[in-house]
TrEMBL record:
UniProt source species: Taxus chinensis (Chinese yew)
Function (record text): Activates SnRK1.1/KIN10 and SnRK1.2/KIN11 by phosphorylation of their activation-loop 'Thr-198' and 'Thr-176', respectively. Required for the regulation by SnRK1 kinases of the transcription of a large set of genes, the modification the activity of metabolic enzymes, and the control of various nutrient-responsive cellular developmental processes.
Residues annotated as domain Protein kinase: 99-360
Keywords assigned: ATP-binding, Host-virus interaction, Kinase, Nucleotide-binding, Phosphoprotein, Serine/threonine-protein kinase, Transferase
Molecular-function annotations in GO: ATP binding; protein serine/threonine kinase activity
GO BP term (any one): intracellular signal transduction
Entry protein name: non-specific serine/threonine protein kinase
EC number of the protein: 2.7.11.1
The protein's assembly and partners: Associates with the SNF1-related protein kinase (SnRK) complex. Interacts with AL1, a geminivirus (TGMV) protein essential for viral replication.
InterPro entries: Kinase-like_dom_sf (IPR011009), Prot_kinase_dom (IPR000719), Ser/Thr_kinase_AS (IPR008271)
One family name in Pfam for this protein: Pkinase
TM ranges: none
Length: 362
């Protein structure tokens, strides 16, 4: 067990793979333009109650971070390498450039994820090794392939750096080979939880602590004109010191200016906003807020707000069914969830209001 067991649990989820060789999401699987997501086993995440008030344990305030300006420029640019050298170290372990293979974390349709140790700094990194040719043959939209999504993911991750976002360290893209390697920060910890979470939720105090971190990361992304597109517990990792980091930018989009209109909605169905179920254009940032609300709902109640037996059934319930909240719920939390899960996107609470909400700053 030890660090090897932990890396098998975590890096697979961070990078969209499982340690048993299957992908963490069922794909590519389409119903119209929607992807279906496979549910995972549930696992409760222990944690301590949040001890801070408006300022969290990492020394920055949710409200103070609204503009995200302090993080817009990366402190360390992503290293770009255009040569792949494969070799072995003195013990016969395979190497890619200066990275020594430790263990395979998972295998997917287009490549694999392998834990490596950097010989220069001695640190562990997760290498997502993809095959460009295979990606180029998978159509995800009329004019886009899976390779389009991967290249977009790389470009987005090259621009972002924030304490609540998994960091891209290096991109290795050799034009003379079929491989594309993304070297990512190794997060030692676990998901917030999988699927709908433990029955009864994880408790308000822990949920508040996690929510603040997710909120800060999402505020930063939106301030950079980036829509995540798939906010959910399985894309939220908790480090060994309790910090939540957003991961998986495979369906994210970047915009110029304030035009965040989208038509394709490739996120997970049960986290899909009502306006995204109608097959018309929608605003990506507002849809992210809805997914954030579903995530908070899961954290405090332990079940999905809207669920059905088929994809169409799920969408029908999201669009038509009223939001159920227990009568004995904390009134401040009720108000926050009603705001985040408002079916009318024009009336939905925004991230600014959420960051200043009484339940959040309590």
């Amino acid at each position: 067990m030890g660090w090897l067991s932990r890396c098998l649990r975590w890096c697979c989820g961070c990078l969209g793979f499982r340690k048993d060789g299957s992908k963490a999401e069922v794909g590519p699987f389409f119903f119209g333009k929607k992807h279906l997501s496979q549910q995972h086993l549930l696992k409760c995440v222990p944690g301590e109650a949040y001890k801070g008030l408006q300022e969290d344990v990492y020394g920055y305030s949710v409200v103070a971070d609204l503009n995200g300006a302090a993080y817009h420029t990366r402190k360390f640019p992503v290293k770009e390498t255009h040569v792949i050298v494969k070799s072995e170290d003195s013990n016969g372990n395979k190497m890619i450039n200066e990275y020594v293979r430790e263990c395979r974390i998972g295998t997917g349709s287009y490549g694999k994820v392998v834990l490596h140790r950097n010989t220069k700094d001695g640190k562990l990194y997760a290498l997502k090794v993809l095959h460009k040719y295979r990606l180029s043959k998978v159509r995800v939209a009329p004019t886009e392939t899976a390779l389009t999504d991967v290249l977009r993911e790389v470009e987005i991750m090259k621009k972002v750096e924030h304490p609540n976002i998994v960091n891209l360290i290096e991109v290795i893209d050799d034009p003379n080979t079929d491989q594309l390697c993304m070297v990512l920060e190794y997060v030692e910890g676990r998901w917030i939880f999988q699927g709908s979470g433990p029955a009864g939720g994880i408790g308000e105090d822990i949920a508040r602590r996690y929510f603040r971190d997710i909120l800060q990361g999402l505020i930063y992304l939106h301030s950079c004109n980036i829509v995540h597109g798939d906010i959910k517990p399985e894309n939220l990792l908790v480090t060994s010191d309790g910090r939540v980091k957003i991961c998986d930018f495979s369906v994210s989009r970047m915009f110029k200016g304030n035009n965040d209109e989208l038509r394709r909605s490739p996120g997970t169905p049960v986290f899909t906003a009502p306006e995204c179920c109608l097959g018309v254009t929608y605003h990506g940032k507002t849809a992210d807020v809805w997914a954030l609300g579903v995530t908070l709902y899961l954290m405090v109640l332990g079940h999905y707000p809207f669920i059905g037996h088929t994809l169409q059934d799920i969408y029908d319930k999201i669009v038509r069914d009223p939001l159920f909240l227990p009568e004995n719920m904390n009134p401040e939390l009720t108000n926050l969830l009603e705001g985040l899960l408002c079916k009318d996107p024009n009336q939905r609470m925004n991230l600014d209001a959420a960051a200043r909400h009484q339940w959040v700053v309590k």
